[in-house]
Amino acid sequence: MQTLSVYKMCAAALLIAIGFVIPAFSPVKIVLEPASYTLASHVAIFIAMFISPFIAVVVSLGTTLGFFVGGFPLVIVLRAATHVVFALVGAYYLRYHRDLINRPVRIQGFSFLIGVLHSVCETAVVTWFYFGGGGGLSEMFYQQGFVRSVVLLTGVGYLVHSMVDFAIALVVVKALSAQGTLFSVLVYPRRDAGKG
């Protein structure tokens, strides 16, 4: 049980590092002014969801802290903070529905629902900033108008972005689990291995 906790702690640290490095340095970005989407920027959090609710929250908070320390604008830091919501909800669901990983249609439905929650939370932050919650948005947000900038590019855009990143995370989780690596012990712990 103690060994499993050490593995989980190491996995969380690695996922936090990955979760910060990808959005900070990735050259793979889709820019639809005024929004931009960095491919795989949520993958670490989605992988953490498959391990446990606690690890999902730790990775979400760790990546948020990384954005804060990295000097990113407040709107980005607060958007990252909202990841705790979808990560916790998703991780709790996955904890009790481990078979979901082998059900392609149901896992896509799960991805969609988590994507909606993800999008709603981030859109709420951007909406608050849009209507004067401390600035932080580019002038393009206001020039394009609320419907295009916030509803379409933020709301719908983040939903699609979330689902793409979830699909990437699912491929990684399945690959690591199928090979019988240490990761498979984290994703499918023995019942007597303790919770967390």
What do these coordinates show?
- The protein has 196 residues and is mainly alpha-helical.
- The chain has a single domain, classed as Arp2/3 complex 21 kDa subunit ARPC3, CATH 1.10.1760.
- It contains nine helices and two strands; from the N terminus they run αββαααααααα.
- A two-stranded antiparallel ribbon has the order 1-2.
- A hairpin with a 2-residue loop joins strand 1 (29-32) and strand 2 (35-38).
- The longest helix has 33 residues, at 146-178.
- Residues 190-196 have low confidence and may be disordered.
Layout of helices and strands:
Blueprint: H1 2-25, E1 29-32, E2 35-38, H2 43-51, H3 53-69, H4 74-81, H5 83-96, H6 104-130, H7 139-144, H8 146-178, H9 182-187
Antiparallel strand pairs: 1-2
Helix pairs in contact: 1-2, 1-3, 2-3, 2-5, 2-8, 3-4, 3-5, 4-6, 5-6, 6-8
Please give a handful of descriptors for the protein shown.
mainly alpha; 196 residues; 2 strands; two-stranded antiparallel sheet; Arp2/3 complex 21 kDa subunit ARPC3
